[in-house]
Amino acid sequence: MSTRERRPTRAGFAPLWLAAAGLAAAGCDDLRECDPPDPERQAELPAALSQTGLYADIAAGTVASDVVAYAPGFELWSDGAEKHRFIRLPNGAQIDTSAQDAWQFPDGTRLWKEFRRDGVLVETRLLAKVGPAPEDWAAVAYVWNADGTDALATPGGAEDARGTPHDVPAAAECMGCHGGTESRVLGFSAIQLAASPGAVDLDEIAARGMLSHPPRRPIGLPGDAVAQAALGWLHANCSHCHNRTRPSSDGARCYDPQRRFDFTLRVDEIASVESTATYRTAVGTVIRPGDPDDSDAVERARRRDPDWPSMPPLGTEIVDQDGLAALRAWIRRL
């Protein structure tokens, strides 16, 4: 089926490619165009990964004692790359969690995400809080050398890095995703850690004193395993762009689409599947109940086409078949 060969549109349900065509005709900015990062913030980032504080001994792979490894409950798809994540707070500092869906991290916080592709250690990304304001973040990817003894900052990104199919994003693209939330941090949150499969979950970081306001009740996603898998996948892969509380920006529309629907899971909106933003805003617009093949969310997720508005648009060239199957299974049951 071509990008324009779609079944007749049902009343009240316009396919997204029509909206995309309209935006193009209106001359709107390409969503893949991003403003360059702030040079003063970027200057705070070291030139080498070994200087960032992640490792006590980088050659041996020994992580520093004040660094915490964690895993989100739902992963952003990165073409099957193996990923490991770490966080370090300044000594004695806490995350301001008075707003459970918009954690504010203290100045000096650092988060790292390591990528291996086909067994090759390719890159480690750093997201660092470099000032007191919510937007005072800087990010860059470090590409590893051949012998795995260090990695160097690569602000321009790299295609097919280290002989793998993995593309390293440019620093300008980082806030395309991270700029979509008030906290600027995606995988380290109340929702993600409550569902974490690792030893360091929401209860553990609360016990460590990392949160200013630990949740007063357990956080659990609504619905059965089928609904949770789909809602979690949409939250992890789509909500940083498609949400109605995305911070405004005066610059290029860097991965900032129209806010007609919202895939975000929020602590106060998970009493039932029907109370989630996904159900309230996406079901009936980009999700056709009972019919995944007539749902634009599926149509976007099942493609990787530079001439078609695919989802997610950044950091992937291969369709996430497991995530797509989870989305289809849930829509089929609606």
From TrEMBL:
Keyword terms, alphabetized: Signal
UniProt-listed InterPro entries: Multihaem_cyt_sf (IPR036280)
Signal peptide from the UniProt entry: 1-26
UniProt feature, compositional bias: Basic and acidic residues: 297-307
Keyword Lipoprotein: no
Coiled coil segments of this chain: none
Region (Disordered): 288-315
Protein name in the entry: Cytochrome c domain-containing protein
Native source species: Sorangium cellulosum So0157-2
Taxonomic lineage of the native organism: Bacteria, Pseudomonadati, Myxococcota, Polyangia, Polyangiales
